[in-house]
Design brief:
Four copies of one chain form a homotetramer. By secondary structure, chain A is an alpha+beta fold. The first copy, chain A, is built from eight helices and 18 strands. In chain A, strand 8 and strand 9 form a beta hairpin. In chain A, helix 6 runs antiparallel to helix 8.
């Protein structure tokens, strides 16, 4: 039980994969923000299975509706409830997972926690589908950040063992959305596509890594010692199903570095204090330092694969083989890109409100 | 501002590197737990500079005192205040960092957030010294977990480019504390020592990685969708100064794996459901699955190095060179081992209380 | 911004008086609780204008729908979203309050906080209508409490200067709902009805007091020193529009008492420790003592009256007279009775979960 | 377990009546506030037994020390730990309450919650002594409020059945501290003194009521719908041992009023919008309206009385008589005055920070 995140921009998630809807309540959006449902819809559409490579054949319509908090096209300061009604849900394929948990899925742990009452249909609360709600909330957070010039952008940097090496100027949404894998490096993107097709042929799946950047973040955001930028961002990223690792700046690579290499030297550029390198990923002491914030999130391969796998029948206690039916993503990484953006937007928006950098009325 | 962590086992940190003391208030410890200050002291002593390789020449006495919450040798249910008075603090070396922030340190970001009022002496709130308080709280959390048979253990798995490959049976505190780098692989430990000595000779520093395990954790701990085990653990780990990355199970390696490789197949062992591999690191859907929880935390090299580095004089706006004086760790990784253990203990204790797995009175 | 209440049983409110709906998300309901919408509907129906004396002529249909968290007729452990779509909303009467705030209403303070973006229609978020959502959540909390034998009951004890003096055995829902003012003392109820009719004739309104009792509460619930039973209950009661005072046990009367009168002496009854009197209202040191919990909430007279009143035109800064149109309650006290019950249920359910008195799976 | 209060100005209380100390950690104080220990000491001294009528013969020295968060005489933005070491504690009188709970005290409920591990000496955590820490924190909150011109003042308005009727211009600290009962009406103060002496002669105690005002509060503070001004203030007031009721403005008296009487009509004074009366006590819709905030807190008579009272021996289950030894206040109301001020300061400071009305750096 913990379906809310944030302290000043509080997002409460509800809904299940095959229930009536997936939605969020956003508490703390300042009054006066112009909100068009089409803008939110555009973000949610980027998360759809058919919008990128590796997605399933499912068609999710995900038409976003606003139930509260918006009046005359603007936020009122009241909680904003957004949701999308579920459609195209075929629960029949899931009946057997009640007693036979799928390897790599949360079926077994959900059973341990909620007993037989867990809504297992389509993964219920543990389905990637609930991230559609995260994206709705992220769209509003992103609009608030944009009011202060802060931009968030994410892109695929690895699928399988293919890594991207994009030109920095190509890390723009226009460029990223050109490739079906949301990679800013066209050559790598082709190889990533090939890697996905290879696992599809084998009824298998593959993992990858997403990088997220926050640009134009003012210095001093973050609330040490426990609500650090890294701490809150990583907590938010790990709410995305399949996330297995989070790092900032030089990240795990920093372990092999010397201080004289890793330390970012200070300098002055256009009368502003900058660092000559950005191994810190824009964060020092848990606080933003004014340089771009850089985070990477590693995703495991999709748990659902067509291959037969060993599990245990919870009723009999015997080992059984299970082939997961239904349509599944062979690689969720490209679809995770807008979700990573959303989580980063939520967290930075919360910190900007905590610091008073975004005010209580937008006018 | 956010010096508390936890929901049921709430730890509030206070104190500065060169202030009067470093301490914690622990709110939520069940009544009746036998608490000996010597046990807490033993944990705090493991964090001392002189207790492991790479530490400074500073002598920190860190005598732990209990100010509240303990009566007749047991917790009462009231908040427990623990602290260690500061000694041996030489603040003179820090006077120049007010205007000349040290590269890699939080001096500049602290200035951005708190202005000229920040207590910069010895890094103030951003010093690794405040983790002494985390270890005090972790010692109590660890005792509570031990009541239910849960054991937490951490060890160094990488320093520089030296990685350990310990025999699983050697991952015990007795074995780990045998080497000054807290590595369970004696051969790797020697190479790690050499790596540290090499950077010391160059007045430089080096990073590394710590792995933490939680054994005998019951299934179903964790509070999805936002308070996942990974999310809360990573948030806690990132409160340790110098942490740059956190991963679970296969972690970043999962990005290059296929689902058929990564999925942990279910099996039955001694009538208990287990998985044949543990790429999930004991966590599925944000919930513990009964297998060992495995996390790794990457640390950057110590920011303080003897070499001269470029910074900016905040008053004049001009570039200047700065050589950081004072005694510093050339590698904080061995000292981070007990801190990583403490943070894992705090988080798991909180989840065990949330789930009712630890009761409100220990008898 | 703070539309969530509770720590373990967290209720998030959304919706406006004349928006699309009024609803709640309930996070923390244990899995396995049988939930019938008809039971929730029955509670919500008690709050309807036409269900008691003093209500408006408005017909609110308030058909409760469940959007999430219920599967096969039982809670799943996931967040439960409940709402009622709004109908019969005539916003035209409210257009003039944008610039001319109604005396006694929140129009002016909402303007101060949210500026011109506040949804003023029908009072928006400040309308008593949002308490319909509180009652939905309270119905579920009440069911959880009932599982452990805890019963919550509220009744009108004062309207205007008429006070009730019910026979203790009459404080039952069956008896209370017999009178249109929800008073357990039939003689007083008649006088209360007369008092309401008198103010209605004058196009005026009248206040009153509601008493709430919690029976069979185990000893030791409450979380001192700040989350006392009194503190959390009063905070919840003050979320009901028009509440002006809260007291427990002897309450304000205790100010005039001596210790020898007020102290409840301990005794033994049926081998259980009881107190001979209950001036403490079942709470000592912020903790339940096993005796009935007794709270009283004073409500001001409805702010909306037919009489012309002086206000200020916010645009011109000039004094103007305003006659509030629309249909309004002349006395909201009888309708507040189920809301007071709901708030008490929410708070006690939260404390019962915090203490582990209600488990995480109901079976 | 809940020893923290506030969201932006978070106060964590620790310490026991007869433990080593009583203290607080304050998290969220903006950087740059000049803090003199003498100012805090002056507030704490007002709470001392010997500083007002009705107090005990105990001498509490209560010398306030600062352990962290202050540097060069100003707050740094880091958590501020303040405490007073305990002295003059004679625990011998309390040994018998382990098994024989005192009527009117929390001995029995603490036993229900914490079992035999509760620190019963002098009431432990349930003693009024812990409010010394509240006053330390309130002193800092009061200084922050004063920076923005907000003033908090409390005074005794009732002791026993004696009520005060002060001239509004006499409600100043100078005037209030002139009388040993902290009453702004000298004639009533004399009668209150007589009432206290009467109960002292009888080895009895007496209750009373404190009124608190907040002046110059800007409009729009408060966070509906759950974190209302009334809700948070009442929660804070009920953390004061012996508080039994809280009301705002007309309070319980509003129950007997008509809307046409109670509604505060808007007017214009010096180009500012005001209300002609202040039955709302400065709060509408949970938000401040710019008029003085007025709250009243009713206190029960001190539970400790010299008279013999019936209790139950928890070990034998038999009724026994108990005469509470030790030195006790015959009326705690005058000593509660600075505590009520402190709680109001804490809450308003928190709301002012939430609204951004007090900034993050004071310069």
């Amino acid at each position: 039980m913990s379906n809310s995140i944030g302290t000043q921009f509080v997002v409460t998630s509800f809904g299940e994969s095959h229930g009536r809807c997936v939605g969020v309540v956003i508490d703390g959006c300042p009054a006066g923000l112009p909100i068009g449902l089409d803008e939110i819809q555009a973000e949610v559409d980027r998360r759809k299975p058919q919008s990128s490579a590796g997605g399933t054949g499912r068609r999710e319509e995900d038409r976003v509706e606003a139930l509260s908090g918006i009046f005359n096209g603007r936020s009122t300061g009241a909680p904003i409830c957004l949701l999308a009604w579920n459609k195209d849900a075929d629960s029949s394929a899931y009946s057997e997972i009640i007693s036979r948990p799928r390897p790599g899925h949360a079926d077994y742990t959900a059973f341990l926690k909620y007993g037989k009452y867990n809504d297992f249909r389509g993964g219920g609360r543990f389905s990637g589908r609930i991230t559609a709600g995260f994206v709705m909330a992220g769209a509003i957070a992103g609009k608030l950040l944009a009011q202060r010039g802060i931009a968030i952008i994410a892109h695929t940097v690895q699928i399988g063992d293919v890594k991207s090496d994009p030109h920095p100027s190509h890390i723009t949404r226009r460029y990223i959305d050109k490739t079906p894998v949301r990679c800013a490096d066209p050559a790598a993107a082709k190889k990533m596509m090939a890697a996905i097709q290879a696992v599809q042929k084998d009824a298998d799946s593959i993992g990858g890594t997403v990088e997220a950047l926050a640009l134009n973040v003012p210095g001093g955001l973050g609330e040490p010692v426990f609500d650090t930028l890294e701490g809150e961002l990583s907590k938010a990223f790990f709410a995305i199903p399949a996330a297995r690792g989070v790092e900032f700046g030089a990240g795990f690579g920093a372990a092999a570095m010397r201080g004289s290499q890793h330390n970012d030297l200070f300098s002055v550029k256009n009368k502003k204090i900058v660092t000559l390198t950005n191994h810190a990923g824009g964060i020092s002491g848990g606080l933003s330092n004014g340089m771009p914030i850089i985070a990477r999130v590693a995703f495991k391969p999709t748990a659902s694969i067509g291959k037969s796998q060993q599990t245990v029948n919870l009723k009999t206690g015997k080992k059984v083989d299970l082939a997961v039916k239904g349509r599944h993503d062979s690689c969720i990484v490209p679809r995770a890109v807008p979700v990573v953006e959303a989580m980063m937007s939520l967290v930075l928006c919360d910190f900007a409100l905590r610091a008073g950098y975004i005010g209580r009325i937008i006018s």
